[in-house]
Design a protein that fits this description.
By secondary structure, this protein is an all-alpha fold.
Length: 76
């Protein structure tokens, strides 16, 4: 009799454990999807900002070099 009760309780515990594991998987997937999107968006914004800064720096360097060439031509 006690063994049958223990077997029934073990079966119920297994069922509850499986349900909790499934629920944790669903919650994890639901939470992860928006987080991945936010992380990807943030990465894209950082890349765009870095590219913009690099373009500004390149433009300043070209302008400086052009100015230096003009100054050398004017000196000769």
């Amino acid at each position: 009799m006690q063994l049958a009760k223990l077997d029934t309780m073990t079966t119920h515990v297994q069922s509850v454990t499986a349900n909790v594991a499934n629920l944790a998987t669903v919650v994890s997937a639901a939470a992860a999807n928006p987080l991945v999107k936010v992380a990807a968006f943030t990465y894209g914004v950082r890349r765009a900002a870095a590219a913009r800064r690099q373009a500004d720096t390149d433009r300043e360097v070209r302008a400086t070099l052009k100015e230096q060439r003009r100054a050398r031509r004017g000196a000769h």
